[in-house]
Amino acid sequence: MTTAIIADDEDLPRKDLRRMLDELWPELQIIAECEHGADALEAIHQHNPDIAFLDIRMPGMTGLDVANATKGRCHAVFTTAYDNHALEAFSAGAIDYLLKPISRERLVDAIARLKARLEVKAAPSDLSSLMQELDKRLRPQNVERIRWISASVGDTIKMFPIDKILFFTSDEKYTRVVCTDDEAHVRKPLKEIIDGLDPEIFWQIHRSVVVRADAIAKAHRDELGKVTVELRGTKEVLKVSQAYAWRFKPM
């Protein structure tokens, strides 16, 4: 049985792709539908699908990030609303993509290519450099980044400059914000805060944890392969989920 996951943060495109795949490739088993890149990454590690249909732009972790983090584990097909001019990096045909709204004819072609690769047991391509170049081209250049986090503590409003924050953790309906000498909770989900953070400066290491990369002092891997990290400026030890353990592989 060939298996796949679908990752798209918009309900309608995700459902449309599922419907078309059910019609055009009924033998394909869709084992997970994901709204965010982090969910897709965890689903790939948990289910080991043969194929991942990944929206290029999702909140926080993009489809390109997911493919780069899971290279070699499954065949990736990207879905995107960008026009062909923005997709010149795809011109060599090395990366398969579906332009939204996805046409039946284009999906038929993509399915034929996937079946051919699976039939000969072709290994998923390592397209890291090409994906990184594409990511640079498509990443928004003028995104307004968070500069301050404000948190109410009783009748006081604390102000945390973003360059002083060590990590964020999700705490039910709140997000915990931690600096070297203070902390607070804000009434905003972590996934919304992530959108305003520079992904080169703040790394997601768990569904509920984002850390400042240059604050990481060391990482530990136990006998079961579980990873934890220690940060400069705090005694707290943070867990790394399996989906993000790739960040800490030796060079």
UniProtKB/TrEMBL annotation:
Domain HTH LytTR-type: 149-251
Annotated keywords: DNA-binding, Phosphoprotein
Leader sequence residues: none
Domain Response regulatory: 3-115
InterPro entries listed in its UniProt record: CheY-like_superfamily, LytTR_DNA-bd_dom, Sig_transdc_resp-reg_receiver, WalR-like
Positions where 4-aspartylphosphate occurs in the chain: D55
Name recorded for this polypeptide: Response regulator transcription factor
Originating species: Undibacterium amnicola
